[in-house]
Amino acid sequence: MFKQFFRLAFVTVIWKQYKQVIVSTLLLFIYIFLVSNIHADFLTHTEMQKDTTGTGLSFIAKWLAYALGVGMYFAYHAFRGRDKKSKSSKKSKHKVSTNPSVIDVDKESDENDPFAEIRKRKTLRSRADFLEGKD
Fold first, then answer.
1. 100: three-class secondary structure by DSSP
2. Which residues of the chain, if any, have pLDDT below 70?
3. Membrane spanning segments where (predicted)?
């Protein structure tokens, strides 16, 4: 029972982490398979017609299609990696200062920060202070 649960959890984690890589790689394999089959069909057709004038160009077109598919695959992953880096830098709303003891926070984060009021208080009280009725 637990073995199946851990397998499913492992597969889920892998899928969430590498979903785009897995899907794009499968699409690349399907693309290469289709190009190969289309080229084989064309060669079969030209052989049946006994007209071999376009076979050289078909090989050039096949290898250009392969190069285009693989190039698009690598370009997609290069731009996807760049987008992840830019998104992660945009998500951090804190500015890094030269003094490690001082951290500047953006004004936008103060408006959306539910704890800003608590940080502005001069003294903080615990639950025990509330129960005892101390001010």
1. coil
2. 84-110, 134-135
3. 21-40, 60-79
| pTM to 2 decimal places | 0.59
The tokens for 41 are 């069909």
Instruction: Give the H or E element holding residue 104.
Output: strand 104-105
Bridge partners of 116, per DSSP, are none
| Distance (Å, whole) CA 54 – CA 46 | 8
Which residue bears the tokens 């499913």?
Answer: 8
Picking from 69, 66, 84, 67, the residue whose alpha carbon sits closest to that of residue 20 is 84
The DSSP annotation for 48-98 comes to HHT--TTHHHHHHHHHHHHHHHHHHHHHHHHHHHHHHHHHHHHH--EEP-S
Asked if residues 93 and 106 have their Cβ atoms less than 8 Å apart, the reply is yes
